[in-house]
Structure of Methyltransferase domain-containing protein:
Amino acid sequence: MKGLPLGDEACSGVYCSHVLEHLALDDFRKALINTRRLLKPGGIFRLVLPDLAFYISQYFANTSPDAALEFMRNTGLGELSRARGVKGFVQELLGNSRHRWMWDYPSLEKELGQVGFEHIRRAEFGDSLDPTFNQVERQERWTNCLGIECRRI
């Protein structure tokens, strides 16, 4: 959230896989601003994260009395138990493994547009306009997930 130690417009592309959902909303917005700052004009921001719309559709299709429990577990939004004591406090303070915010395409498109990204589109595994991203993408990170590619203009 403080930004990477790089100058403005230092990158042609930024790739973010399963990170943004671990941020609180205000930190998420700072991360988007910092990402745009890092990109050169025409630079690509490509991201993938869990798709809230997918999980909601699964929840509505689930007729089990445990549907809500499964939704919370599958989205990483719930906690089965809370660590207590000093160890629990330190884990909560330093750890960032649980999901803090979930996104669907319309809400994420709006957030990206508000910080100045353009040409925002839903992306699929391996379909980047820049083949360099193919070197870091992994199919399993895209399954049932939301991918987006956009540009700083």
Summary: The chain has five helices and four strands. The helical segments are 25-38, 52-61, 67-75, 85-94, 105-114. The domain at 11-152 is CATH 3.40.50 (Rossmann fold). The chain has one domain: 11-152.
